[in-house]
Write a structure and sequence with these properties.
By secondary structure, this protein is mainly alpha-helical. It has one domain (3-136). Helix content is 69%, strand content 0%. It is built from 5 helices and no strands. It has helices spanning 3-30, 34-37, 42-71, 79-101, 114-135. The two termini are 37 Å apart.
């Protein structure tokens, strides 16, 4: 499977969806919808905002992973890490959105239970990718350095 393509395609679609949700939330705010703005609905507003923010960030994480895989040819991402990165971008925001549907008083709805699962998937995916990237031969820059030649600190 081409993980770079998977993360780029998923990331860009996630970004589109979560940015649309953000624009919808802005419209609810701008048109002063009580369902969104009333003091009694503070938990709902917080959950929807958290879902939008986390979804957008996780979309960008997936795009970054796709670009990392494309730029470092010898780096291979484990299928489990790829799975976790994609599904964390679904489950974590979905937990916030579902928690906003039926809040009870100051508590979110039961759907917020997906948030810890999405968070664990995210931790594993990022942690596994970081470990594998650190151990990857392409992480060192991929260019052979001549003996005695000082290592450059960047492009000049």
């Amino acid at each position: 499977m081409n993980f770079a393509r998977r993360h780029l395609v998923c990331g860009w679609w996630f970004l589109l969806v979560y940015l649309f949700v953000g624009l919808l939330l802005e419209a609810l705010h701008g048109f002063k919808f009580g369902w969104y703005l009333d003091v009694d609905n503070e938990m709902r507003r917080l959950m929807l905002t958290l879902g939008h923010a986390h979804g957008t960030l996780l979309a960008l994480v997936n795009i970054a992973m796709g670009l990392t895989l494309r730029s470092l040819g010898s780096f291979t991402l484990r299928p489990s890490a790829s799975f976790c990165l994609v599904w964390s971008a679904v489950l974590l925001p979905a937990g916030f959105f579902l928690g906003a549907l039926m809040p009870r008083g100051g508590d979110p709805g039961i759907g917020v239970g997906l948030v810890p699962l999405g968070g664990l998937l995210l931790l594993y995916g990022v942690g596994r990718a970081a470990l594998d990237l650190t151990r990857s031969p392409s992480f060192s820059g991929g260019e052979k350095q001549a003996e005695g030649e000082p290592r450059s600190r960047g492009a000049r």
